Fold this sequence. Notes:
This protein is α+β, with helices and mostly antiparallel strands. Among the domains are: 4-119, no CATH class; 245-371, 2-Layer Sandwich (Heat Shock Protein 90). It has eleven helices and five strands; from the N terminus they run H-H-H-H-H-H-H-H-H-E-H-E-E-H-E-E. It has helices at residues 4-8, 15-33, 40-54, 60-70, 78-91, 95-114, 125-201, 205-233, 250-259, 277-297, 337-348; strands at 264-267, 303-309, 313-320, 352-357, 363-370. It has a five-stranded mixed beta sheet with strand order 1-2-3-5-4, with helices on one face. The longest helix is centred in the middle third of the chain and has 77 residues, at 125-201.
Amino acid sequence: MRExxxxxxxxxxxxxxxxxxxxxxxxVTWFGVAGRPFTPALVAxxxxxxxxLLVRRRFPLVAVGAAVVVLVFGPNLAPPLVAAYSLASRYGxxxxxxxxxxxxxxxxxxxxxxxSDEWDPLSLVVVVFVALPVVAGLWTFQRRxxxxxxxxxxxxxxxxxxxxxxxxxxAERRRIAGEMHDVVAHRVSVIALQAxxxxxxxxxxxxxxxxxxxxxxxxxxxxxxxxxxxxLRDDGDAPTPRHSPALHGVAKLVEEFRxxxxxxDLALPDVVxxxxxAVGRAAYRVVQEALTxxxxxxxxxxxxxxxxxxxxxxxxxxxxxxPGGARTPVxxxxxxxxxxxxxxxxxxxxxxxxxxxxxxxxxxxxARFPR
Length: 371
């Protein structure tokens, strides 16, 4: 048994086309039987005409055959003309169209001449009546073919445009990766080497600790930079970085800032909550950016980092509690890109973030993520 959807494809998959063909077949059949005495032969004639015209879109040759058989009951132009149009509309200027049209025309002429007592040259007007629907069907076929070609050309142009855009993005990513490798990676490597040399050569213990912090931070920056470069150079889906930051790394991050001289208090749950990679990275970056801004704009001020986990969410709050006692920053101006990037990361992870001054005169960054 055929599925209703597959049968509907006979009418181009549209219900309105089916309803239109039902209306056409019904009207043509009605005009053919109206005014005639009701007989079994007339019922058979009507059923044959209706069925042939109903499937004319998918099987125009069936419509032609039905129209020829219908002509046996008397001259009736409607079924043959509709069948001729359907034949030309589906097959275009092909051999089947010309043979089918010739059969329809011959059947009309024969039945017209047989219904008259003598041959009438005016009966050749039937040729014109057959030619008109055939020409209309050929025009419909050519229009449909042209629209299909234009649609294919538009789809091809769109695919080519997307391909060119993808190539441009890939080229730009590789160019950025090259610039970062040649400039940033080189500079950070030099910093790491010089800090390492200072650690080995200095006699001052405090200077040695600071140099070791600089060396460790530079090495970590190089590791993360390599992950970023690998993502930029990759042509396919971006791989997960081998050193992807997560919520478990917040404690180590705070310890690094403490080693650099920052006064940071950390409050973590007894069990660090498990989160998705996106949430873990975003939470880590929020803490990192907040601590960096605190050190830039209020160096020496105490900072508190608090992580609170519930059944459905993870909340992070970084507060600068006493900016009044901090040293005045030197050249601590920024373009605000850090906060913008923080909001974008949190939004991509499905969370919310807010930042601004507190009532006590400090500054707070608060983010909330779904578990």
